[in-house]
């Protein structure tokens, strides 16, 4: 008989689905296919009846205008209200049948049995993490497992509920000057709670496991490494097989098949974008194809606007901004090479995506990337400008090297297939 599993995953309520959201969808799907019954904890509001509560849950997971309470003060206000609101709490909602869902944003809904709604839950638990030493109590009566797809500061109310938490990386603790919302002290408290009280800790790479054990040695026996599957859907690959679609996307973005280098991801210091652009500028006269960058602008890269806007580098260093998933995959697939000299990754999905799509990869040789790429990428010291320059030139000029990396890349991408991933998830519940 299948177990009842409650999933927590605020990333599925974010406006844009990134690596953790893809991980969340994969683990929900795999556990459903193993015969268990999945429920998802949303921060949707209550309703007069079950139909309204279900619609609230789905809207929260889809409507891009409804995600999150942006202001820290609004979060605090909602938290205070929740302390005095006796009616606030968890409401279980059965889910309608969602068959043949075409929107990849919601395709995981078919693997859920229902929703577990608590209005503003993820904002409230964030404030709780900052204000209190004891974790937030989640009513898990009736659930065999509670499974968080990223670190959250909670404890299950029932001692009979197995507590599974996922740690993707320790970036807020180990990357200097990282500006995202996780205060290092607050994040440390959250991870320490997981290390001390979670029953099972899922790490997405052996590198992340090593980092956790280095800071929290008491957690070692609890950690299971599952990696991540490549988040590319078959229907997207079929669409990209249409040459007219492919040509339209390339033309819309101002590039030609095989005649550009490509990077996609957040443009931020941790990703080493400044040094990548610097290396490309030094190598440009030897490769004579543009460098194309895509993704949201992050911290430490504001100075790049001067290069993007400079007349000298127009059509040579191109910034496309955020791309939808199909355009992203199309540009990866048709690039001369995918360049990813990142300084720190907990896993590193983009290089594996490029390998599955048959594009040679240049990768940094630090943190998780040697584990993920092995010998299927041109590895460089991301701190060494000359090595990055040499890699760009080699991939721009050596067709034989590119073919060799493509063949090795297919094999490495196969290792991160969904079927292999599901086997590692099954081991957790064995």
Give the DSSP E fraction (strand runs of 2 or more residues).
5-15%
CATH architecture of the largest domain: 3-Layer(aba) Sandwich
Overall radius of gyration: 22 Å
Estimate the global geometry from the Cα principal axes: globular
What is the mean pLDDT?
87
Find the structural class using helix and strand composition: alpha/beta
CATH topology of the largest domain: Rossmann fold
Name the helicity range: 40-55%
Largest sheet: 8 strands, mixed
Strand order of the largest sheet: 3-4-2-1-6-8-9-10
What's the β-strand tally?
16
CATH hierarchy, class of the largest domain: Alpha Beta
Count of DSSP H/I helices: 17
* Domains (count): 2
Low-confidence stretches: 64-69, 83-88
Cα distance spanning the termini? 13 Å
Short recap of the structure:
Helices cover 42% and strands 15% of the residues. The radius of gyration is 22 Å and the shape is globular.
Characterization of the model:
The chain has 430 residues and is α/β, with parallel strands linked by helices. The protein folds into two domains: 4-226, Rossmann fold, CATH 3.40.50; 234-415, Rossmann fold, CATH 3.40.50. Helix content is 42%, strand content 15%. It has helices at 19-33, 50-62, 72-84, 121-131, 171-174, 184-197, 206-215, 234-240, 243-252, 273-287, 304-309, 325-333, 349-356, 369-373, 385-397, 399-415, 418-428, and strands at 4-8, 37-42, 91-94, 114-117, 136-138, 145-148, 154-156, 162-167, 200-203, 223-225, 261-264, 291-294, 317-319, 337-340, 361-364, 378-380. The strands form three sheets. It has an eight-stranded mixed beta sheet with strand order 3-4-2-1-6-8-9-10, sandwiched between helices. Helix 13 (349-356) links the parallel strand 14 and strand 15. The longest helix has 17 residues, at 399-415. The protein starts with a strand and ends with a helix.
